[in-house]
Design a protein that fits this description.
By secondary structure, the protein is an alpha/beta fold. Helices cover 32% and strands 18% of the residues. It catalyses: a fatty acyl-[ACP] + malonyl-[ACP] + H(+) = a 3-oxoacyl-[ACP] + holo-[ACP] + CO2; (9Z)-hexadecenoyl-[ACP] + malonyl-[ACP] + H(+) = 3-oxo-(11Z)-octadecenoyl-[ACP] + holo-[ACP] + CO2.
């Protein structure tokens, strides 16, 4: 069968460096770090005392108090970003088929804030079983998709994807496939996460996965740098409206770009470490490009996973070099996690948005905090160090890799 074309018509974001698309993009281009001391709880006894929080966030700025109490913060972020994308796409519910509009949403962890709060209450009450009736609906990872579909009456495919840090990219790829197959006409898709609490920080500390550079948080997320010591936790959400091309044209929607390919692979190697040679990363990029019928030489920019971890930042550049050969040196590569931190299950969404905006504005956002390149990384690769670079971009890719060996890649192309 002939697959349908899919385009991006709306975007929304709430991130550590901006609570709207414009704020987020402007701060990306300026190389602003979102890392700062943690305000959500007293972190003085933790090995890591900083994170990339959404600044000055108050649920009541977006929801009434009764509604806010029924939603974990990760779901609140989801609804906020989805509303921005919905408005940006100019959707008129009176003119679309809501049975053919769906929501697929990613979250790697889900309602960990709610889970910790309810468990504390249980212990505080001498283990008397008194739980909030919204405990389970606030905690489960799929509830964000449910909230969004209820708000807009989208009755098409509706579910959550959970694949650690690849969750949002898997959501986007799944929505993409369903539209191509004619099973839906439109999706709100993306991902959200809110795991900056004692359990989240303590758990990643125990794994030795996150940076402990407490004396200088702003430079702690330093992908590809010799001095990197782990990722910086982030939070927030990114949302995209994607739809079938003819459907978008018919309703007169503005079109950012075409979503042309997606790839999904597994390392099948280790629960947290990437394959040392980046074999899964190489295959996922290769599969995504093949899916989109894109030649290697057509790719201009890769928004890489680039978390600022010792192993991952070596494996991914190797994968790019093996796949692209000489063209690897003609690419722009950057890790926007150097600014936003790692949004875990939401990362694929905000980085897809960064890739699309790079294409739209002909500007590649930088990899900040590049002080001394790791000697194991080829210095001829253009990692877009410290400052944004102007470049006309026709094809952009976004990579996300998750604990468990989950790999995802999505490919965007300027509309012909």
């Amino acid at each position: 069968m002939e697959l349908k074309r899919v385009v991006v018509t709306g975007m929304g974001a709430i991130t550590p460096i901006g609570k709207t698309i414009d704020e987020y993009w402007n701060n990306l281009v300026q190389g602003v770090s979102g890392a700062a001391p943690i305000t959500r709880f007293d972190a003085t006894q933790f090995k890591t005392q900083f994170a990339c929080e959404v600044k000055d966030y108050k649920a009541t700025d977006y929801f009434d108090r009764k509604e806010a109490r029924k939603m974990d913060m990760f779901a609140q972020f989801a609804v906020i970003a989805a509303e921005q994308a919905y408005q940006d796409a100019g959707i008129d519910l009176q003119t679309i088929d809501q049975d053919m509009a769906g929501v697929i949403w990613g979250a790697g962890i889900g309602g960990i804030i709610t889970f910790l709060d309810e468990t504390r209450g249980f212990v505080k009450n001498n283990e008397v079983p008194r739980f909030n009736p919204f405990f389970i609906p606030k905690m489960i990872s799929d509830i964000a998709a449910g909230h969004i579909s209820i708000k807009y009456g989208f009755r098409g495919p509706n579910y959550g994807t959970v694949s650690a840090c690849a969750s949002a990219s898997h959501a986007i790829g799944s929505a993409f496939d369903l539209i191509r197959l004619g099973k839906a006409e439109m999706f709100i898709t993306g991902g959200s996460e809110a795991a900056i609490n004692e359990a989240g920080v303590g758990g990643f500390n125990a794994m030795q996965a996150i940076s402990t550079r407490n004396d200088d948080p702003a430079t702690a997320s330093r992908p590809f740098d010799k001095g990197r010591d782990g990722f910086v936790m982030g939070e927030g959400a990114g949302a995209l409206v994607i739809e079938e091309y003819e459907h978008a044209v018919k309703r007169g929607a503005k079109i950012y770009c075409e979503l042309v390919g997606s790839g999904m692979t597994a390392d099948a190697h280790h629960i947290t470490a990437p394959h040392p040679e980046g074999k899964g990363a190489q295959r996922v990029m290769e599969n995504a490009l093949k899916d989109g019928n894109i030649n290697l030489e057509e790719v201009d920019y890769i928004n890489v996973h680039g978390t600022s971890t010792p192993l991952g930042d070596i494996a991914e550049p190797l994968a790019i070099q093996r796949l692209f050969g000489d063209h690897a040196y003609k690419l722009n590569i950057s890790s926007t996690k150097s600014m936003t931190g790692h949004l875990l299950g939401a990362t694929g969404a905000i980085e897809a948005i960064a890739s699309i905006l790079a294409m739209k504005n002909s500007i590649v956002p930088p990899t900040i905090n590049q002080f001394e390149l790791d000697p194991e990384i080829d210095p001829k690769l253009n990692l877009t160090p410290n400052k944004a670079q102007e470049r006309k971009i026709k094809v952009a890719m976004s990579n996300t890799f998750g604990f468990g060996g989950h790999n995802a890649c999505v490919v965007f192309k300027a509309l012909d």
